[in-house]
Amino acid sequence: MGKARKHRPEQIVNILRQIEVAVANGKTHPIASREAGITEQTYYRWRKEYGGLKVDQAKRLKELEQENSKLKRLVAELSLDKQILQDITRGNFEARSDGVPLWRMPWNAGRASVMRANWFTNHAARSATSRRSGTTRTR
Question: Which of 10, 18, 41, 60 has fewest C-beta within 10 Å?
Answer without folding.
Answer: 41
